[in-house]
Amino acid sequence: MDRSTDPGAAPLTLLHDHLDGGLRPATVIELAAHAGVPLPAGITTAGALADWFVVRPGESLAEVFARFDLPIRVMQTTEALSRVAREAAEDVAADGVRSVEFRFAPTHHTAGGLSLDAVVEAVLAGLAGAPPEARVLLCSMRGERRTDEVVDLAGRWHGRGVVGVDLAGVEVGEPVGPHRSAFARARSMGLGVTLHAGEMVGAESVADAIVDDVPVRIGHGFRIVEDCRVRDGEIVDLGPTAAAVLDRRLPLEVCLTSNAALGTPVERHPFLALARAGFAVTINTDNRTLTPCSLTSELALARRLGATDDELATMRSTAAGARFPDP
Ligand SMILES: [Zn+2]
């Protein structure tokens, strides 16, 4: 289904992929042995670990987020960070991706004594010369209050591979408010800004994210459909938040398999209704190890769910056009 040989199709572009959610299980085992980090009880092979990583339907958010603990514990040295970044680039390149923005939270990788700058430098070193055009987004976590620090860090590496910042972590009970001025500052510095919103919480979370026009893209964002009137699978009217997202053409970084793992079955996912109503829908992976997928498998899934060739081509060109510029 990859139309990369089709001269009319935009090169495959991946906008939303977490470095710590996409490690090769075999690499986790090697890095864990080297760092003295224990594997989950009873796990000895890469196959068993791959299975352990997979998020099952019905798991709580706490259980899902706990899956990131092991990858993060083994990503605490420059060597480990560079290796994980290099392998992620190799893996998405093997899938046919030509341009990718990887994201991660630098504050999660200082437990071994690295500075925030050393963490970013190690990831960029791993991506240097990578086959796909690889850029980096730095995540600030909703539960932390370090967004100013992350924005300053991104500013120092802007133009050297870092192109933007993100707000990640549990949406529930953690509004954008305390982070807003830092993200506004990021925009004034020329950094791209994408905020996870409308994934775990409904349209009100998207409304919270776009006050004063801060985001340039929205991570997931599909629950904006809760601010739309839908009849027979078609969006027929928009509430104020949905209208604001549509008017601003804010790209939505949809991740079908990941969204399904958090409770929105793919058959009920509104991505196609949103695309047909004119929203700037893009297709992404989120966490390739925790919710096993690739960009081409997600595009194939979108096709199985009814997207036509033309609609898929539009999603691809929307993604290519929504990349954050590297100054
Ligand atoms: Zn994400």
UniProtKB/TrEMBL annotation:
Domain (Adenosine deaminase) ranges: 11-320
Gene3D superfamilies hit by this protein: Metal-dependent hydrolases (3.20.20.140)
EC number, as in UniProt: 3.5.4.4
Cofactor field: Zn(2+)
Example of a GO cellular component annotation carried by this entry: cytosol
Signal peptide: none
Keywords for this protein: Hydrolase, Metal-binding, Zinc
UniProt GO molecular function: adenosine deaminase activity; metal ion binding
GO biological process: adenosine catabolic process; hypoxanthine salvage; inosine biosynthetic process
PANTHER family cross-referenced by the UniProt entry: ADENOSINE DEAMINASE
Family that this chain belongs to: Belongs to the metallo-dependent hydrolases superfamily. Adenosine and AMP deaminases family.
Name recorded for this polypeptide: adenosine deaminase
Species: freshwater metagenome
Lineage, broadest ranks: unclassified sequences, metagenomes, ecological metagenomes
